[in-house]
Specification:
- By secondary structure, the chain is of the alpha/beta class.
- The protein has a domain at 12-69.
- The protein is 30% helix and 11% strand.
- The chain has helices at residues 21-37, 46-52, 66-69; strands at residues 12-14, 41-44, 60-62.
- Strands 1-2-3 form a three-stranded parallel sheet.
- The termini are far apart.
- The model is unreliable at 74-92 (pLDDT under 50).
Length: 92
């Protein structure tokens, strides 16, 4: 058996849970705390924010938009941004 290789830690994670918030609420809050303390951005869709009654905190994007959840590296870039990954051209 080959030993597991360690990769770079994630830059961001997204939280999705099942339909029973009573069972996951404490774990979600612990995960957000540990991830943000490690410098990992936590994306939380609006449904999860409401389900777990989450409040704003540093390193956490509450109500994350769909493009951010689908791995758009530009995150919340404004329309017309020619940042990395922009497929419209005009950027470096």
């Amino acid at each position: 058996m080959t030993p597991a290789r360690r990769g770079a830690p994630p830059r961001r994670i997204t939280i999705f849970t099942h339909q029973y918030p009573v069972q996951t609420a404490d774990a979600v809050k612990q995960l957000i705390g540990a991830a943000t303390a490690a410098g990992i951005e936590v994306l939380v869709p609006q449904e999860e924010v409401e389900k777990h009654r989450l409040a704003e905190r540093g390193g956490c994007v509450l109500g994350a938009e769909r493009h951010a959840l689908e791995g758009d590296e530009r995150g919340h870039a404004e329309e017309g941004d020619d940042g990395p990954g922009d497929q419209r051209g005009g950027g470096a």
